[in-house]
């Protein structure tokens, strides 16, 4: 199992296109309300955006796309909306997995599965198994996910496996137990829908991620909007604690080496 180095220690190259994009897909309810439709119509429409964004990421050469579909706090919503979202998730798995597989996309689901029913859990396991060896894009869907849950669960799993660490442990001891151990940390985080918060998404993994917020509601987000986010990312200077001058020196040095 390859474990990616944390960007807070090993500084990754800054490529043109982010290797890993993580998105909070927000604004479905408002999109529907603006059209005098029920909130769930926004969720339905949001699925089409997911398709477009997955396709665009694959074409652009993004290696990892992580989508927040349902937070551990979303159970607080009205029961009929929660149940609609679960049904939609199941339908997506049933309908889309073959297409993902045909496009060489690996699907991963992160989050606490214990609250899902058996049917959903079987479909998740099948989908992950079918696509496990695909090599184009890794699409991770965060469902019943919470950043704090992830960290707590990782600590517990680590201590169960390696009780000697109860005396003390470091970041590299913990990282293999986090849900996204198979991916580098997100380079770019996008939140649609205008809110400027993390809402308990990938707390550990986003320590040095570039943040991008847009008012565009998720059902209206498209490949142009995605490219605007990537352009904004490309203008940033990722310093990881260093000074601008240090980075420029390094660039000049690596230019000489080539
Ligand atoms: C995001 O859209 C989808 C989920 C949280 C499942 P919302 O449903 O939060 O839409 P708004 O924020 O109410 O517009
Ligand atoms: C965050 O959206 C979670 C998902 C997109 C799945 P919410 O709309 O639930 O976030 P808050 O509650 O407004 O922060
Ligand atoms: Mg919302």
Ions, cofactors, ligands: which are bound? 3-methylbut-3-enyl trihydrogen diphosphate, magnesium ion
Which class do the helix and strand fractions yield? alpha/beta
Strand content: 5-15%
Element order, helices and strands?
EHHEHEHEHHEEHH
Number of E-state strands: 6
Number of helical stretches of at least 4 residues: 8
What is the CATH C-level name? Alpha Beta
From the spread of the alpha carbons, the general shape counts as: globular
The H-level CATH homologous superfamily, spelled out, is Decaprenyl diphosphate synthase-like
Low-confidence stretches: none
Query: What would the CATH topology be?
Result: Undecaprenyl pyrophosphate synthetase
CATH architecture type: 3-Layer(aba) Sandwich
Rounded average pLDDT:
94
Helix content: 40-55%
Count of discrete domains: 1
Largest sheet: 6 strands, parallel
Strand order of the largest sheet: 3-4-2-1-5-6
Question: Can you lay out the helices and strands and say which pair or pack?
Answer:
Layout: E1 20-24, H1 28-34, H2 39-60, E2 64-71, H3 79-102, E3 106-110, H4 118-131, E4 138-145, H5 147-161, H6 171-174, E5 188-191, E6 210-213, H7 223-234, H8 244-257
Parallel strand pairs: 1-2, 1-5, 2-4, 3-4, 5-6
Helix pairs in contact: 1-2, 2-3, 3-4
The structure holds 3-methylbut-3-enyl trihydrogen diphosphate (2 copies) and magnesium ion.
